[in-house]
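Regression check, adenosine monophosphate case 566:
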Amino acid sequence: MSILIYAENWEGKVKKNIYEITSYAKELAKKENLNIIAVSTGDVEENELSTLSEYGINKILIGPSMMKADSKVIASFLETIVEEYNISLCVFADSYSSKMITARLAVKINASLINNVVELPITQNPFKVKRKTFSGKAFEIREANRDKVILTISQNAFGIQKNPIECEIEKVNYTNSINNISVIKTEKSSGKINLSEAEIIVSAGRGLKGPENWNIVEELAEVLNAATACSKPVSDSGWRPHSEHVGQTGKTVAPNLYIAIGISGAIQHLAGVNSSKTMVVINTDSEAPFFKAADYGIVGDAFEVLPKLTEAIRNFKS
Amino acid sequence: MKILVCISSVPDTTSKINFVENSTKLDTTGIQFVINPYDEFGLTKAMILKEASQGEVTVITVGDVNVDPVMRKALAIGADKAVRINTKPVDSFSVANEIAMYIKNNPFDLIIGGRESIDYNGGAVPGMIAEILNLPFINACIDLQINGEKAEVTREIEGGKEIVSIDSPLVIGGQKGLVHEDQLRIPNMRGIMTARTKPLEVIEPNSTESYTSTYKFEKPEEKASCKIVDSNNINELIELLSNEAKVI
Ligand SMILES: Cc1cc2nc3c(=O)[nH]c(=O)nc-3n(C[C@H](O)[C@H](O)[C@H](O)COP(=O)(O)OP(=O)(O)OC[C@H]3O[C@@H](n4cnc5c(N)ncnc54)[C@H](O)[C@@H]3O)c2cc1C
Ligand SMILES: Nc1ncnc2c1ncn2[C@@H]1O[C@H](COP(=O)(O)O)[C@@H](O)[C@H]1O
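Current build output:
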């Protein structure tokens, strides 16, 4: 028996969340003496593969290039590998395409699907594992009752550990019969750091008063190498693009550090950010609800605090 | 065009979440249930498509009798017909399978679900419906145009968006963007009155097996109280972030 991890790549590159799920799978594999098989598709860069192999993978299988939007084909491809290698557990990172693939694969192979996983399983027989639920307001221990299990691990939930072993790389063929989907266009938000994978996020709300004031937010983000985000009213008013909106109705994020500036901390905002490892709030109102959720806070005017903070971080970094 | 919208009834976004019965069930005392916000975008999109094409919108849910008020609200917003499969949802698979069986007997041109439910956060039901019925599926959908047998769907991807052409009928998981927020419809008096006479069909489940179940819920640990740093002493914050939290 083996554990499968889906090593999704983005234009040939593997991201940190794949190292996280590999480390997760390795912990489990060690306990039960199992092998880890990583599956990727398309043209994964050579050095990405060698980095990946340092995390304790026994075998890397590379299938042909597949369209990410075509979850049907990717799931069918993975199904053939699950069968061939007698896979009992599949581990995925959380991504737009993994959400589509896991739903399909679970049906195909009759597996228990558990997403938002935050810890190693509590028991493996029966398989019980903790996941986030109620938009971060609670956890749930979920029990699987099928022989096969598919897990999606929350971003930043599991630390990366190296575990170098001999790793074999093999190209596999797969021909998909039907093709009823084609990409018309892809639009990338320009050059900035991606919210869903940012280690640090600098986020601002209505307290900033207007779009013309975002330069101080962006400067702070730049010294921290952070992505920028905003509250819902800010994107609703067109001060910032909708892609920056975080919260219950926007993006859910889980960075190491979330800095909230001039954001009151409404429950719907917190629902999208409460899995951040550390939260800092900067707000003129010491009664703002965000202070109840944050780890560190400054009661003060963003227009005075931000330039000072940016300067202090610049000094700290140099 | 015949459109099906899958509606999950969820605690209102401001709800305090607590558990009862040895932490195995949600404490529903004082909780107001609403249409899952993502499903509300989907329902509005369905209404707009229906109005453009003389179509029909059916809303479906898997749930017990307590879900009826939420389904009435969907009817008041403008759905023509509601269906409730009379069982408490246990997991994504059992919900998807019940809905898929209904669709097998009552085909639709378009099936709309939400990107995820804000209570279970599974993000899996629409994809599973698609797989069971062997239909195309796009999640995190922020725009949709149907032209006969083809649909043009925009989906969110890491750091951007992608527009794809895909066969219809299809299943989508919708979210904000599918329609603008100011297009969301609040039921008016007439809607509420006519909703009372619209059909809300209750059908018994096929008692699908579930693949997972809740063992226990837990509340997050109380956060230690927030450390306040003086705004004239920013370096203390840097110190805490680098040495205590170790995040910079
Ligand atoms: C169904 C539903 C879904 C929602 N989903 C989301 C969501 O996904 N994301 C989201 O963000 N919101 C969401 N909301 C809205 C949410 O309830 C709040 O209204 C919103 O988060 C408030 O945004 P804000 O904090 O920027 O603004 P405000 O609440 O107006 O807060 C501004 C804050 O800035 C502070 N401030 C003012 N001046 C300064 C200054 N000079 N320096 C520092 N601080 C200052 C004020 O003290 C205040 O705390 C949702 C609401 C509903 C009903
Ligand atoms: N009990 C249910 N009845 C009908 N539709 C549901 C139900 N649960 C989930 N859905 C649909 O599936 C979507 C995703 O839900 P989930 O997989 O629970 O995150 C929701 O937005 C709904 O459209």
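Comparison notes: Chain A has a mean pLDDT of 94. The pocket of flavin-adenine dinucleotide (ligand 1) is lined by residues A 205-207, 231-234, 247-250, 262-264, 266, 268-269, 272, 282-285, 288, 301-303; B 13, 37 (CB under 6 Å). No diff flagged against the previous build.
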